[in-house]
Specification:
There is one protein chain. The chain has helices spanning about 5-15, 25-45, 50-70, 165-185, 200-205, 225-240, 245-255, 265-275, 290-300, 305-320, 325-330, 330-335, 355-365, 385, 390-405, and strands at about 90-100, 100-110, 115-120, 140-145, 190-195, 210-220, 345-350, 370-375. The chain is of the alpha/beta class. The chain has an 8-stranded mixed sheet, with helices on both faces. Helix 4 packs across helix 5 (about 200-205). About 40% of the residues are buried.
């Protein structure tokens, strides 16, 4: 991580705020309260009050200036070797109205004549990760990184979250697909879904196959409740003899994931920490949610400060997923197995967020005109970010090549 990131990590730890709690009001309040605490402590050890005031005022100003300069809110352009805008490229942030709500997205592509790819994110938008982990997808697609209803660019404080369900997400996906088809004069587009986005993803292609060339599921969900049980068993197995994790282990043992009972809240609060700690979460080499996800979202230049705040407001309001209750109560391997378009799964072997093993079992039950399962030996939950070159090679050769669209 760049050096400036270390400053923000320090500030994050000092002011003791977490991603789920992050909002502008809380941010200012925490800074003010902790300034007072530290002023009292340091004044007791002999550091003059005015010096402390100037020190912390300067630190706050530097932090705010840093955030402002790293929050332009403008999509970064594709430039050629002479720093001119790349001919036929597209880089924009857009908003449209669909099904009675405002929705936002980024569109990125080096050649506007490439096929269109609509990306369905999981529990929260993750386009910001491309700043540190470029996917290369924009070399072979015009990629639409869409923030779904209630999330990121599409955040709405007035949204009734009970109105967001699998059916509404399916219809929203259809509408934005129709918009993209008309805008780019393409009869069909590609659909890529990741993690929680793969749950509506397979249902969309089953209901509206005529809209898509093919479906690409990254970290495909199958039976998520069983996946959580497998993750629980793996985590407790790894922590059983680890003295440093004894408290977490005991908390998990006292709150087991049982298939016939609701998933314990205690487990849900621990799972992200444990998965990242063990390399089975977002990325195999990402061991901390704060430094791996929260800080990069703050450093992401293409979001404005307000959009960064809204990103985490949306996440705080939706939890693991805005449709989590529906996701864990369905077994896709029994519900959605027959498709009229090609289906491809990309999955990291270390993934326990959405079980690699269950995804393979689901894949074996699928019937489609063409299908392919591709394993990534150095990835956990996000091979498009972890092994981007291999992902692009596979998609270019084995998917686009066979479809005749590249």
């Amino acid at each position: 991580m760049r050096g400036n990131g270390a400053v923000l990590i320090l500030i994050t730890l000092i002011f003791n705020y977490t991603p789920a709690q992050f909002n502008q009001q809380a941010f200012i309040s925490e800074i003010s309260l902790n300034h007072i605490k530290m002023v009292i402590i340091m004044n007791k050890i002999g550091i003059p009050l005015m010096t402390l005031f100037l020190l912390f005022s300067s630190a706050t100003l530097v932090l705010l200036i840093f955030l402002l300069t790293n929050s332009t809110g403008k999509p970064e352009l594709f430039l050629d070797d002479k720093k001119n805008i790349l001919i036929n490229s597209i880089s924009e942030k857009g908003f449209i109205e669909i099904n009675g709500g405002k929705t936002g997205f980024f569109i990125k592509g080096r050649n506007i004549n490439n096929p269109v790819l609509l990306y369905l994110h999981g529990g929260m938008p993750d386009y910001f990760l491309t700043q540190d982990f470029p996917t290369g997808l924009d070399k072979i697609f015009t990629v639409v990184w869409w923030d779904q209803r209630g999330a990121g660019l599409s955040f709405n404080a007035q949204l009734d979250r009970n109105s967001v369900n699998i059916d509404s997400l399916i219809e929203d996906t259809k509408e934005i697909t129709n918009y993209l088809g008309k805008r780019f004069s393409q009869d069909k587009i590609y659909l890529m879904a990741h993690s929680g986005g793969t749950f509506p993803g397979v249902k969309v292609i089953e209901k509206y196959p005529e809209l898509y060339h093919a479906y690409i599921g990254v970290a495909q969900i199958s039976y998520q409740k069983l996946s959580e049980k497998k993750a629980y068993d793996y985590i407790t197995g790894r922590y059983r003899n680890d003295e440093k994790k004894k408290k977490i282990y005991n908390d998990l043992i006292n709150n087991p994931v049982i298939m016939t009972e609701p998933i314990p809240e205690k487990y849900s609060r621990i799972r992200d920490y444990a998965m990242h700690d063990l390399g089975i979460g977002t990325m195999h080499n990402m061991r901390n949610v704060i430094t791996g996800i929260f800080i990069p979202s703050l450093l992401f230049r293409e979001y404005s400060i307000t959009e960064k705040i809204n990103l985490w407001k949306g996440k705080a309001g939706s939890g693991i997923s805005i449709i989590w209750d529906e996701i864990i109560s369905h077994d896709l391997s029994k519900e959605n197995t027959a498709f009229k378009i090609p289906v491809y799964f990309l999955h990291g072997i270390y993934d326990y967020t959405c079980s690699y093993e269950l995804a393979k079992e689901y894949f074996d039950k699928i019937s489609a005109p063409e299908k392919g399962f591709y394993s990534f030996n150095n990835s956990a939950h996000s091979p498009i970010f972890e092994e981007p070159e291999e992902c692009v090679r596979i998609i270019k050769e084995n998917i686009l090549g066979r479809q005749g669209t590249f």
